[in-house]
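Regression test case RT-17, inverse folding.

Input:
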């Protein structure tokens, strides 16, 4: 079968659509490298919005995945999908119905409840702002205030890991380790329990850095991606992390989510 053109999956939601997109992306990984294009259709609050999605699928092809909690909209989408032979998946409907039976209670049918503007929400926003401010050694004063401090050489996923953990309400500062620059003094004075060292295989890092250079339009043989230079950087990082005595996680073949889970488990154990 020719998979040159990606299959389109329309994610329809009466909120931002993050839940549906996350589920589709997780499922799509099981078919890698077959391409899947995700088209998000958020904030669908009326029948007109449903019609636009249906017409787009009729024109371009694809399937529809939805997380609609308003029964009238959900039923309208299902009816039209069946009418035009469009494959559809209702992600929330069966779960809500089963929970309702188990709890002997009717659902509230209120869109957007996964992101309420409560104390928890504002803690998440504060953590994200913290991660941005203290990203990649921009301001070392954040080390004293952080819940988690990430150490590692360039391209060990420090920034994406910081942002992921921030969405879990952890204030994260990340510190790049470079042989030509001694680490900031505070990393030797804060509790080693909240410091996380990130290690990576040199060959893997070489591939990642070469791709980074290509993205920037730079020569792939630059010192930044040189294997010997990478080994020097990693040896320096290992020396610093050993001196601190912090826990170290190898990120060579781990997704950000998997590394984050290890970090959170560690923090929970030492608290």
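Golden output:
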């Amino acid at each position: 079968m020719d998979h040159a053109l990606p299959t389109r999956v329309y994610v329809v939601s009466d909120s931002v659509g993050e839940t549906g997109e996350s589920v589709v992306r997780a499922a799509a990984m099981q078919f890698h490298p077959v391409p899947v294009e995700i088209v998000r259709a958020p904030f669908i609050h009326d029948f007109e919005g449903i019609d636009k999605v249906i017409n787009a699928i009729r024109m371009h092809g694809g399937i529809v995945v939805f997380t609609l909690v308003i029964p009238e909209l959900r039923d309208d989408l299902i009816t039209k999908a069946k009418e035009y032979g469009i494959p559809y998946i209702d992600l929330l409907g069966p779960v809500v119905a089963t929970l309702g039976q188990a709890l002997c209670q009717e659902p509230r049918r209120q869109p957007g409840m996964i992101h309420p503007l409560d104390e928890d929400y504002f803690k998440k926003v504060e953590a994200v702002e913290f991660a941005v401010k203290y990203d990649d050694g921009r301001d070392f004063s954040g080390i004293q205030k952080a819940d988690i401090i990430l150490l590692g050489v360039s391209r060990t996923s420090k920034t994406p890991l910081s942002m992921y953990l921030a969405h879990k309400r952890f204030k994260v500062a990340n510190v790049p380790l470079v042989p030509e620059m001694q680490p900031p003094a505070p990393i030797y004075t804060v509790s080693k329990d909240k410091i996380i060292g990130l290690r990576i295989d040199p060959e893997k890092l070489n591939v990642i850095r070469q791709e980074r250079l290509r993205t920037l339009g730079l020569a792939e043989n630059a010192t930044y991606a040189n294997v010997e230079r990478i080994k020097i950087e990693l040896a320096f990082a290992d020396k610093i992390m050993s001196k601190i005595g912090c826990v170290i996680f190898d990120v060579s073949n781990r997704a950000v989510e998997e590394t984050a889970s290890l970090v959170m488990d560690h923090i929970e154990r030492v608290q």
